[in-house]
Amino acid sequence: MTPAAPKKPAGTRPARMPTDDLEDDATIKGVTYSGTDLTGREAEALEVDQCRFENVRLTGTVMRQSVFSNIVFDTCDFAQVRTQDVSLLRSSLTSSRITGSSWANGHFRDVMFDSCRTDFTLFRYGKFKNVLFKGCNLQQADFQFAELRDVRFEDCNLTGAQFANADMQRVRFEGCTMIDVGGAASLKGAAVQGAGAMELALSIARQAGIAIES
């Protein structure tokens, strides 16, 4: 259940703007964006491969039907990003802010989220395959109707996260905070290790109308 690392390009070059800007039907490969401001962009059918994004701002950007593969995102800001039918493949996101963004119908395969702020993020109807969330703040994250296959949550805060109607196979929660998790019954088939197991049991009991008295 360890995501494949992004493929390293034979060589990269610094981004040249506006040539390497995010725009409709663009194909971008082997480019490094460092400290670039990409806020408020709107792009459709974008293809990005074997690129690095370091300390890049994408706040408020809108993307549709685009594919990002073999990408390294390091200390980037995705707050309030809106995507639809976007694929993120064999990529990593480290120490990045994804707060309040929307990834509806997204496709995530071989992706690692490491030490990211992913609170209030919408992953509804997403498809996750071989994905690791490690040390992430996932408070109030929305995984409703998502499909999760070979996914691991490690040392994450999932307080108030929503999983109603999620479909899970080979999903593990290790050392996570799982207070007031919504749709807890949909975690059928998942494995929970640590204090989160008791927190999850209490959530299931409350949602079933069972009063827990001490």
UniProtKB/TrEMBL annotation:
Pfam families: Pentapeptide_4. Coiled coil: none annotated. InterPro entries: 5peptide_repeat, PA_immunity-related. Residues 1-24 are annotated as: Disordered. This is Pentapeptide repeat-containing protein. The lineage of its organism: Bacteria, Bacillati, Actinomycetota, Actinomycetes, Kitasatosporales.
